[in-house]
User: Fold these one by one.
Assistant:
Number 1:
Amino acid sequence: METDSQRARFQQLTLPHLDRLLALAMRWGEQEEAEDCVQETCIRAWMAFAQLRDPRAAFAWLCRILRTVAIERFRLRKRRRELLLIAPFAEGEEEQVADDAPSPLDAVLARVEQHRVREALRSIPEEFAEAVELHDVVGLKYREIAQVTSAPIGTVMSRISRGRRLLAAALIEAEKRSGMTVVGRAQGE
Amino acid sequence: MQGTTHEEAQELLGALVDGELSLPLRRAVAMHVSYCARCQRDLAEQREIARALGREKIPAASLRLRNRIRRLTETLPTGKRRE
């Protein structure tokens, strides 16, 4: 029966990607909200399954649907929250860019807990964070990111370069601030 | 491809690290990086950030979610195939 084979094919193409879809959805919400978001994505994907012509493009196609779902559900709310946090890190990047000294990032990354790096992504502007996450965490190629985000490939390249630079600056700045407290105290003594 | 400016190279360092540049662009950016201390430092940062994020463990989807996805294909009709 056609529906049975369609169902089996759909499950075969979607279920292996659930972990990565969930990881992506958690940019916009906690586990339960993210799972709802992934479920909604799969419902829409199932309804539109006939539109998927190339099975190799299934994951990028699901990411694109998830992004639409997330934009509708979480993005505006998250964006409002983020606007309060962006300014200090943007300033931090300017300081980094103006400085030719060797980067302390290596040492910072050795000290910082692993999940903090991904958390720090939330503090940089959305379009940069999204491109970096789609590549470095979710594993999409630049061409696929361009499709998912409807951006030219040159923009994807620029967003990934700048996003990583902003993230590095954010991590270094956060480390500097936590260190300044200790140094300040020591100098005051 | 002629050489690249510092500003252009800065925008392409990530793609250089990720092997996403065409051969002429890769050569042009690599040439600039070979004599630009700032780009050498930033290239190392691009690698470190990519490596750190690549090590991040992603959460596993729960069995409940997997079952919900399986069930939805049994209860909902899929769209009609477009001819």
Number 2:
Amino acid sequence: MKLNILLVDDDPLAIRLLRHATGPGHNLKTAANSAQAMEFLSQHNFDFALIDLNLAYPLEGLKLIGPLKKNGAMVVVTSAHEEEDIITQCYEEGCDAYYAKGDLSASVGKIVEDVLRRRLDPLPDSVFENEYVTTDDETKASARALLRGITSGLNGLILGPTGTGKTELARLVHKFGGFSGDLVELNCAGLPKDLIEAELFGHEKGSFTGADKMRVGKFKLADKGVLFLDEIGSLPLEAQPKLLKILEEKVFYPVGGDVPVRSDFRIIAATNEDLFALAAKGLFRLDLLQRLCGTVIQLKPLSRRTSDIFPLIKIFNTSPKKLFFLPDAKDRILAHNWMGNLRELKNFVDHCLAAGKGVIDASVVRSFINRQGENQESHLWSEAAWKKAMSGGLDDLTDEFRTWVIRKTLEHNGGNVTRTMKALSISSRQYYNHLPRPPKARMELEEHVVH
Amino acid sequence: MSSTEEVLKTIRHDVKGTCAQLTAALPLLEKLLIEGDPEAREIIKEMADTAARLSERMRSCHEHA
């Protein structure tokens, strides 16, 4: 992989040393002053730049840091200055690293490797230990695919059940995508129909009743950044052609305005609905869906990545009080369906903390699950369930229902799989079709299964 | 900052920067010389130029001191 590198130094010896240190095979541009460097910046995007601070005049290099960061480059400054205020100023301008003159050439090889690794794998594993917690390889791969797609100019679509962390993933992608603009979040379900255009495109003062001042729209706010459209499936059909048009042209007119506005944004849309089924029924525009499908990822429900449950519990517990789960509590937690996913798990952590005990036994888990169960049961034959069947098909809904019944029976039987299968007159194949378990936990359960 | 401090700061900065640069060039120069690479001559010339620039700046400081 080739990197675009900019070297800015007025000393030919320094340029030569840095050229050797960066190694062969990269696209190298060299500039002796800030004017030359700015000219290169107007023509190229750079992966990283090395700047000498003192060029034609002292601290001339300082003014290059901001434009280089906007250009998306990693910026390394080198200088013989050791004054704290100058070094602080460089970091305030946005430089990524500051090296004493002479120390840099020995470190450049490592910096290049670092930039290359970030380009190839912009989300190292440590990100999934602290920022977006998951041990699931498929989820990690999805996050990486989305970031790669978005940073290469595609739109992104995150699919997944409610509470699976779609918003958090969009935030992660924005954070690690190197965008100079903001992440602007908009929930399409909460938009009043008659205000959608004003919200998205902005409006001029007096353009409609109540528009008592000019307002910048979300598309403009997301300039050089990311616009996250949550619950995109709820975007009214009549607003969809306008969204499609701006996705194609990136130019729009604010409501009541006659001056076109340009915005360079990326879109990440998210939904828990089956957009393809909605499109097939004419409830979502297929051309818009195709436009959004630059990178499509599907997040798994928590019940299919149970190895994440305990690391997430640790993260969700922001109290200084540590929680310790007894084995019977752990079994119950792993057997639960977590239909509300991360959101429900977070509620569970709050429930455990409110229980006042640091040691959590099965009774605490049971009381939480019973409370959740009551909520779920009351929604079993609801409008939402009917809509789900309409969009995803009856089989999906009945599958979900079967899974729920099996889980409920398993809980009723204290986690005993044999009794569960007997009570429901189902085979082990039918049981495991509905309740996939992590390998270790499955082995433990299978000891009780009568084949 | 007094003019004496300014001069001292400039000298300190220039001396340290140039010496660091020249020292950093040594491993590459050594490698190229061993390999018989003609680029070694260019590096020696650039090292001499860098040292000469420092010499000029020091002379200028001397006049102003």
Number 3:
Amino acid sequence: MKRLLTGSQAIARGAWEAGVHVASGCEGEPSGTILQTLSALGEVAVEPAPWERAAVEVALGAALAGGRGLAAVPAGALAAALPALDAASASGAAGLVVVACDDPSGRYAPPADSRLLAREAMAPVVEPSDPAECREAVAQAFELSERFETPVVVRISTRLADSAEPVEEASRRAIPPRGRGRDPAAAEALEERATFTRVRGLERLAQLAAHALEAPLNRLELRSAEVGVVTSGLAYGMVREALPEASVLKLGLVHPVPSGLLRAFAGRVRTLHVVEELEPFLEAELRAAHIACDGKDRLGRTGEITPATLARAFRPGAERAGAPEPVPVRPPELCPGCPYRALAQGLKRLHVSATVDPGCRAFPAFPTLGPVDRAPGQGAAAGVAHGLAMALGQRIRGRDVAALPDGALLQEAAGALALAAQGQGTVLICDVGGGGWTGSGVRAPGGWRVDPASLLAALGYASVRVVDPLDLGATAAVLREELARPASSAVVARAPCTRWPASRRPPMRVDGRRCNRCGACLRLGCPALSDDLESVVVSASACAGCGLCAQVCRPRAIEPCGGARS
Amino acid sequence: MTASPTTVLVAGAAGQGAEEGGALLAAAAAAAGHQVRLATERPPSPAAGSVLCRVRFGPGAVPTPFGPPGEADGLLALDRLEALRWIHEVRAGGFALVAAATLPTPAMRLGIAAAPPPADVLARLRARVPRTAEVDALGLAREIGCPLYGGSVLLGLAGPLLGIPEPALDAAAAAVEPAEAAPARRLALALGQSLLAGLPEALRRVPGPRAA
């Protein structure tokens, strides 16, 4: 029976059918959907993890116990799990599959190339081209992992994760756990272990390269003898669409690269192109083998590959699409009622600059909301702000905070937060109450929960205060006091993400007779508010009832539906 | 000669139900026995931004949800601005069905930019794709209690233009999650179908298959 499944759902389905025992992953996409789907299918121990490295370690533990373990990381986040992937590779883990996702568009995550990271960890990479292949790829990856005693990375893209097609479904295979194995590297003396594992890894890759020559994952489609294309992943479909006459070597196992296969294919076509997203990974292998080809010089290293990009690259001038109409843009926005908006407003009032972690993805996109000066990356705000304070000393004291969501706490806790606790800076934690980056992120049920206030106190912060960020006056007062404190301090701003229905309150309304259209409420950037030329109006269906607009309204024209709030 | 796949874009702003419409069309095409692929582009934040579903289907192989640039056969837009944003991807002989609604952008909400007049938008759309019609899809969806079903209203109207039989649309209503919404979707599809008689003759004409 077939069902319409996205790439993420098909990965989960494939893992479930392949008898996966334990799955772990982080909030975000595609990992959230993969875990949610597995959780709904049942029979799998699903463990939402606070960060990528923990997810891979949990799955590694399952694999070392003789089971099948799956780890899923959000788009662009394999780098955060690299130490765990390295450990898995060194351990010779059998039955471990790590799902990584790249975002060549850069819309959702930094456009990193997971193949480079997997190569660093000496792990093979399987790359499906569509949702049906996603389902099959997981089972193939588990088989490879068990046969060659290695973690296997299944690489998809955000575009593939969100693409859907009818996918055949099968029943779950019963895979009895193999029993706990023993890592031969563990018997080696510490100083010889690294050499031992590296030699073993190289031998394994050589065996995999030999296997890749015959592996059904790699497919040769001979058509024209004139033009040949080496490709993989979602780009395969784009090539078939844009260059239907071309011969194609479709690689499903992209690392280790089967050089012999590439050479044989190159010998059968007159001109050879490489079509791959992000880095010239396959192209570099071809060039290293002295096989003439073109690739990134024609397609570039940024952006997604689509029939349009291929048409521009291979048939310039033939494109029939006209120029787009000039249309006002719709930038990403914070949701109505979002506590981040309130916090940004509070910081703006105090003229405080902020180093932020991109908790809600829209946060750094709105510098006009608040003084977001730096957004160095997830898990980095506290350390960067501490370094900033060390360099600038009194010039910045009391005028800069590190703002991070509760989801970043465990990433930072052991290191940067503990260091910052020894200084005199202020950290601001946006505690959305779900143990994650943001309530809107896709996540599996259950999971971890940390009380930020207890953790920060344990790390040595001299003062830890909890505030409701939706109370602008009280939040500003607490922030003012803590910024003036001559010791480290932490402010936990606790308010639930408005994506959770339970956090919604009755909507606000505007008394048109009192509204003087000063625009103070509109400058909050709330999608529920708009100016209809006579007064500001509130969309009752969009409003979450946070009351922030009422707090900034000097003529007191805004109040909750059903009467003023006490 | 083989017929090339049909490409339909379903566009809207976040929260308008474009994803629902795209999934429903893909499920309907599959129920009609077609090969089908769907790609969804959603904004990085859940509150705002443009959403686009590309649905591609046909009796033969469909290698990718992306058709050749500028060659889409139809556009179902839940918002005038979103119709304008994607109209260049539709071939001149295709069609566009646009909901009579404009969700303001942040600049418009602040009063520092004005929404283009609806008549102007319609004229620009028709200059690109003459077979363009505006219908009150969201108003009808609100009548059944949820504006999220505006996509289903448009699909009910577009089904006959795309050669998707009624039983396939009916099956799709139950195939898309959540299944409990099937009765409301069926109602929305029926409301959309009821709009067909009001379309101009040129728009009601079902195009023949295009050669690949």
